[in-house]
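Translate sequence into structure tokens.
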Amino acid sequence: MTETLAITLVQCNQVVGDIAANAEAMLAARDRAAKMESDLVVFPEMNLIGYPPEDLVLRPALIERATRELEKLAAATAKSGPAMLVGSVFVRDGALHNGVALLDGGKIIATRFKYELPNYGTFDEARLFTPGDLPDPVLFRGVMLGLPICEDIWHPSVCRHLAEQGAQIFVCVNGSPYEIDKDVLRIDGVAKRRAIDTGVPMAYVNRVGGQDELAFDGASFVINGDGTLAAQLPDWEEAEVTTRWVKGRDGWSCVPGALHRLSDHPEDIYCAMVVGLRDYVDKNGFPGVVLGLSGGIDSAICAAIAADALGPDRVWCVMLPSRFTSQESLDDAAECARLIGCRLSTIPIQPAVAGFDAMLADDFADMSVDITEENLQSRIRGVTLMALSNKFGPMLVTTGNKSEMSVGYATIYGDMSGGYNPLKDAYKTTVFRASEWRNTHKPRIGLGPDGPVIPQNIIDKPPSAELRPDQKDSDSLPDYDTLDGILMGLVEHEKSVDQLVAEGFEREVVVRIERLLHVAEYKRRQAPPGVKLTTRNFGRDRRYPITHRFRSA
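Result follows.
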């Protein structure tokens, strides 16, 4: 009877739809695991086709190709080396399933399908897949393996059923995207509970990397049946570990191994933005990025994120001064580019502003100057940056934060123009915290320079769009601590005006912010994608109608 087992956990990045390349990477990992005398090598959820595949999974051609590649992977296990646990898509009796296949001895020896299909927030699996039956354990080399898939462990029924049917080790494959404090929730709130409840240890394997608006942080781990952490892989980077398992009087347990430190806050948020931007740019084939560097904190941290994601040589910053741009902003932008080590161009927009003023003079006659002229400057900047992107190829990065996007303080077809926004789900107060953190730390995954990357004056000075004389954000918005507190209540927790007033916020201010939040929905629908950080990002989590008249006041 088997008394020991070696299981290799592969925390990897993948490209959705690049099935052959994903399969090739898995075979290379199997070869490495064989050198470690591993019995089983485990990959994240749906790793063969990439996750999340969204409606690509409805394409018959993709399903056919995935089936062929899975058969090739199975055939490869005929030669010496470990078995493979591979996530993919399966069709059974006309139904589409999210599942895993256990490959060994040159064939598929077992398949299991996901039972709990998430249908909330970023997930809509119930729309795409049919749930499997409650899965039974799989006998593998004398050991009964329970194979729950991601959401299956977030509810107690699957693990309890597997334990009742004799599972001795849970091997759980996952595609669990990052959000704030998710790593703690996975371990303490879910995995430990299932292990202690059943007495069965769990190997938890999660993917890493960016996929459109999702960032996967990895942070795979092993929990023993008593709830102790036996292994912890790093977050935000690919990693592999061969875990050693022994059978004792009380059942199977994992021999304690390395426990890597996970990123604290706000390092985790910063790394999510880096990973999200890096994979969006690289997987879509852009040579680099271009962005407007205004001398303000939002564009400064976006430049730093881009440098850490891609390297400073792939970041092109452009200062687009108008007649309202202060010398302080010009100096701050130049110093920021110097600290980061990236290219900086300066293109004054006044000639274009004068041209539009002349073009519109007849129709604007007898009309006073207002926000129209302010927005025109922003739109001229957007056109200019897009021209550079079109001519030279780098993707345009937009730099508006979640606080501004919430209340519509962004110019559609202006500073909202671009391909990706690292700050889309970052409130302004988060931007300040992340900027201060980056000035004293360099993320281990970062490709940018050591030391400070944002001039302290940018962090300290009052935020301003500089679209009119002496303009400050505080002219028309409450201070950002107050604004973000209200938005956290309205957006993240769906609180009413009365609830927020009871918490100490001024009714008039809350009513106004709620109105701005709702009327800006049409802008957000046209905003570029950006990495999810919170529990309620715009677009994937929070899906409101553009046209509605509900107000909670």
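Note: The chain has a mean pLDDT of 94.
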